[in-house]
Design brief:
The chain has 632 residues and is of the alpha+beta class. Helix 17 packs across helix 23, helix 20 runs parallel beside helix 21 and helix 21 runs antiparallel to helix 22. It is elongated.
Length: 632
Amino acid sequence: MLDTLIRFGKHLSEDRGEWDDIIDIPDTTEEQTKGITPLVAQLLFDLDANQVKLDKTQLKVFEPQDAYTYMNIKIQGGNNKAIYATVSPKKSFEQIRKTFFGLTDKNGKAPEQGQFTEAIDKDFQFLIGSALYHVLQKIFALSEDFTAKYVDQEKNKADFGKAIKALDLPNNERIVLLYTAVKSQELKIPLATPIAKVSGYEDFLRSKFLKKEEPLKLENPVDKLCYATGIPTADVEDITIGARYSINKMFVTTTKNYASNFNDKAFGSNYQASALAQLYLERGSNYLLNKYTTKIAGVDHIIIPHFFSKEDVDPDVLMQRISKKTDLLFRYKQLAEIVDDFSDNELYWLNFLGFESDGNFFKTINTIQDVSKLHFNKLIDTFRDTDLIFKNIAGMEWEKVMTAGKDNRLSFNFYSLYSLVPVRKEKEKKNAALALFKAILEQRIIDPQQLYKHFTELILCHWYGRYKAYGNVYQNDIFDFAARNAVFQYHALFYIFKQFNLLKGMENIKSEELTDGLKPSEAFFRKMDYNDSQKAMFYLGRILNSVAYAQQKKGYDSKPVLNKVNYNGMDKKNIIRLHKDLFDKCRQYTILSFNEPLFSHFTQLFNEEKWSLKSEEALFYLLAGYSFRDNA
């Protein structure tokens, strides 16, 4: 991983400007897509008129360079003081208030100065007496005017919606960048001047954010090993990570993460890096976190490739290709929406780093490692092929299974499978879906009984309507449809596992190719590799469907016969009892002759003495038969 971050960071450092690491260029993709014109606005602190004003005449069309012109620096998390001359106002207007006017403390004490002034007083005293410092002191006097015009008193928060009402912007215009400016005859600033251009502001940014290259104090410096690159250099030092939201926070001296076995009294001896390596690591981390993350089973993951070639790679070109591939497996996307241009000659493996973060911390919670490019590509092909194969299997109604609502056809991938493995809201850290997907990606053997248990939990959720307990199960008020979708998507999941020989006890079993002339149910058995016991439960499920349909025709829309199924699992006693009940119901509704062939098949295949199906497995195949539409 470190090698990837350094390689990306090194590539990104070529022709990099002084401020590139700290400037935040607003993303205007949404505006461009919707035909909205992005704008830049000026918030003027007019010290001559003693007022704060947002002037419509100063609006201009946004250009990316504006983020540099007005120094729109990235918002700092944690306990950092607000020091912002420019912000993206929709989400960060409150930072302007904190920067220039401060906040009332928890004891109700009103601020005596803005947080920017506090920061200079505490850590940047060389700027006391600068033009910037004097401007900040004078602006604080406008606190009352700012509060009256722009602060929501109920929420006690600066409200940009309130601020722009007077501008009366049309719906096709939106302010994406707000810079502050000052005007003061007393301070010899006769014209409105951006705070970012006031003398002292850039000096502050350099001192706070840019690493200073200090001269080596020793006449004959000793080279030390840089653990990140493996190269001895003279400027090796303890890892110091400025950003809280960083992959490199896995290696820290407080919350240990992956540094848990390090001696905290000799941390530098265990993990140290050169100044240049640290710079590359941070740039590589920032690049991947901001552009290449995906959700796997509801958990955010960073996509981190590992390369075998030592040649420099263009991260944008390669990561865009990799990102398209991950979209196919992990996102809600139609195959037709993605250009099938995945050709790349680079040899790589993929790692996925699961993490938690609110922007102020970074915690690793899952790793999916060493997914070869070959396996990843094969997964994409197998999911796509499985979707096509199941579409052509009569009796499954696969198109209905994979359609959510009207004309909303789902892609068959990890995204759609996520809803099949229930994850309890109060136990989200015990994510069975994530463990399952990790096994597929890392090619680990899975016990099929575990899949049957997941299926049983899903069916119980649908039968009893326990949707509030789970964060990933879609509500379906029609049980027949919920059972059909679940049982056949699980068949597809089993099929995927079989293609990769990942089911314990079922290795090297290949599905048969279908031939013409078979009844739909028989063709289905062959394709899904049903054994005799599974077929027996399937036939019992077909009888269950017949009785339920007969009851519905009689006006019993709830299909009372479904209450005779044990949805925790069908053991041998449950099966024998259900068989007897179904036989009686067939007599009652005069449908016995119609179902005699099914009873005959069940009797021939159900070996009471040598019955070996686990109860969850038996339930699965019972509901498969119940949901199958054998019209032949």
